[in-house]
Amino acid sequence: MAAVSITGGVRLDVAAVSITGGVRLEVAAISITGGVRLDVAAVSITGGVRLDVAAVSITGGVRLDVAAVSITGGVRLEVAAISITGGVRLEVAAISIIGGVRLEVAAVSITGGVRLEVAAISITGGVRLDVAAVSITGGVRLDVAAVSITGGVRLDVAAVSITGGVRLEVAAISIIGGVRLEVAAVSITGGVRLEVAAISITGGVRLDVAAVSITGGVRLDVAAVSITGGVRLEVAAISIIGGVRLKVAAVSITGGVRLEVAAISITGGVRLDVAAVSITGGVRLDVAAVSITGGVRLEVAAISITGGVRLEVAAVSITGGVRLEVAAVSITGGVRLDVAAVSITGGVRLEVAAISITGGVRLEVAVVSITGGVRLEVAAVSITGGVRREVAARSEYVMTSVALLF
Q1: Beta partners for residue 312, in sequence order
Q2: Would you place residue 396 in the very low, low, confident or very high pLDDT band (cuts 50, 70, 90)?
């Protein structure tokens, strides 16, 4: 099929479509423009089907409603480029992708006045999704709810860019067993709001992120995130710069989880609020370098680290106009914290209250340096039973401060 064009005042209702066994469909280009409504329900694609689409363009005043789509067993879909622009609304519900399905998308672009609602998506068993590049820009809203990714799924995303006036709401996402997600680069810039609630990552999941950049007027709200059992997350570099607010509440990391972060940089006009974080049993966190600089405020409350947790930080640098407030932190039983070097410099305020460190905890700090205009307030710190603290080197100011703690 050479090209499909749907334009102006068209309504298409599609129901009960079945494509089965040894079918190949090639479409050179699909264009949907201006005042088009497409309703699709009860579509089944099964067994030995290949769909090749060179380019899809959806523009201006288009509404697409998709419900009850099933893609099963030996299906391959290749899309060269998808462009969604200006006044488009897409509603997707009840999509099932099962067993031996491969989806390849070369480039996805969503721009200006687009709303995408996704609910009840299930991806299961032997599915591979390859996306070369995703760009979301200007006045876009994405609502995602009830997405389940289970068993033998691999997702590769080369680059994700979210810019200017974008709102993303994600709720009820479940990733379970034998899932691998690779993201080469994520960039979130200017007027973006991301809300994440009820995320569950469980058993044999690996997430690899090459680089994350969050810049200028971005707000991220994260609540009810659970990471459990045999999960590995690798992040090469995280950069948070200028006018960013991050709220994290109700995060649970439990049993056989490993987090590796190569470098974290937080700079200028950033506020981080963290509450109700629980890290328990067989968790290892490796952070190569943390840098916090200029006009940053961090508030941490209700943090619990318990049993068989190891945290390694190669270097921490806090500089100029930083305020850190820590309250209600509990570290208990079989926890090891290794920090290679800590540097706190110029115009920094640290407030620590209600810290409890109990039973079988080991803290090792190689070098601590606190210099120039630093204020440290410590209240209600309890260290009990089988705790070992080692500080290899520290400045004279630090010795006074450590006396307050220990």
Answers
A1: 286, 338
A2: very low
Residue 397 phi/psi, 5-degree rounding, is: -65, -40
Q: Containing H/E element for 405? A: helix 396-405
pLDDT digits (tens, 9 = 90+) for 74-86: 999 888 888 999 8
Over residues 267-283, the pLDDT tens digits come to: 888 998 888 888 998 89
Give the Cα separation of 400 and 81 in Å (integer).
62
Pairing of strands 140-150, 166-176: parallel
- Distance (Å, whole) CA 239 – CA 293: 12
The CA distance from 113 to 188, in Å, is: 18
Q: How far apart are CA 159 and CA 208, in angstroms?
A: 12
Phi, psi of 396 (to 5 degrees): -60, -40
pTM of the model: 0.81
Sign for the CA dihedral angle at 307, 312, 315, 321 comes to: negative
Residue type, 315: A
Q: What is the pLDDT of residue 391?
A: 67
Task: Give the mean pLDDT of the chain.
Answer: 85
Position 394 confidence tier, pLDDT thresholds 50, 70, 90: low
Summarised one tens digit per residue, pLDDT across range 148-172 is 889 889 988 888 899 988 998 888 8
Report whether 57 contacts 86 (CB < 8 A). no
Q: pLDDT digit string (tens) for 130-139?
A: 888 889 998 8
What tokens were used for 377? 């307030």
